[in-house]
From TrEMBL:
Pfam families: DUF2958 (PF11171). InterPro entries: DUF2958. This is DUF2958 domain-containing protein. It comes from Allosediminivita pacifica.
Length: 131
């Protein structure tokens, strides 16, 4: 899977040039087999170092390597995936606060969605589709 589209890369790079801004996450990466969710808001001009909210057991704001995410090999030849339906909807500070309160990005997404604060985004797999 392509982890970043050209438009996502361009937005992440543009965000990376704007210091001290509470950006909306551009892309969500996840481990399809377990722990590991990353919400990226920025990409350094080197094209590798991303900034955002990472959750590999505890959600925290920080930086990580896109190349390292690409290199992770999971069972059945799979790797880290990009959530194709994700829309950030809120600044990263809102995501971070909700993730700290709930203990994870996945639970924060459920909380924000159920509370009506998330207008779109990924529908939690425990929710029935709306008609």
């Amino acid at each position: 899977m392509i982890l970043l589209t050209a438009s996502q890369r361009a937005q992440l790079l543009a965000n990376g040039c704007q210091a001290d801004t509470d950006h909306i996450p551009v892309v969500k990466f996840f481990n399809p087999f377990g722990a590991g969710v990353w919400l990226a808001t920025e990409l350094d001009e080197d094209g590798d170092i991303m900034f955002g909210l990472a959750d590999i057991g505890y959600p925290e704001l920080g930086s990580w390597s896109l190349n390292e995410l690409r290199s992770i090999r999971l069972p059945f030849g799979m790797g880290i995936e990009r959530d194709l339906l994700f829309t950030g909807d809120f600044p990263i500070s809102v995501w971070a606060k909700a993730a700290r309160e709930t203990g994870s990005i996945r639970d924060a997404e459920r909380l924000l969605y159920r509370s009506g604060r998330l207008s779109g985004g990924t529908r939690p797999d425990t929710e029935p589709p709306r008609s």
